[in-house]
Amino acid sequence: MDFEFETGNLAFYPRPETELLVEKAVELLSKKCARNIPCQIMDIGTGCGDIAISLTKYIPSSRMVATDISGTALRIAGKNASKYGVENRIEFIKSNLFNGIERTHFCDFFDLIISNPPYVSLEDIASLSAETKEDPYIALYGGRDGLDFYRRIIGASHMFLKENGILLMEMGYNQSEDIKAMLDKSGIFQAIEIYKDYSGINRIIKALKWKSL
Question: For the whole model, what pTM was predicted?
């Protein structure tokens, strides 16, 4: 998307699939953010800040909160944000997903919660390429089945989304059915859609919060 992000091998290195995630977010928010109406966006597990910074640049009316459990990653993200002149439009917060995030602190619910969480399973971790293994382990491992972070995000995101707010996540090559089943079972989300990557693999999942709880 015409951006270059520093990682220093201390934050997850952006892949082409995440570019698709950002493009889909821009497409979905194009109507919501029309006429310079501010859009509230939360990026969970921001890493080097690639998603948050890209969305901030492509959606000028956005108000961005970006979280990560790693203070090192947040420092790198802050430097990348300064490089592109958006450091004053992104609030970087050290947080384990939603832990310690007070909804009232942001004055409103979010129009979009977006995430590319760690999703490599225990079975797949050993078979990763040497290049991928250079990324921080914490940015890769998603629990025994690779789905730990999806369970937690789906279980809590409704408390931070507006009605018809969007949950948008990147996922592993064989995880779409399980993640869709989680969303269906929650009883909170509707209009679930799955989008393929450049290789025809189910890579991005979208759902809308359909009611207040």
Answer: 0.87
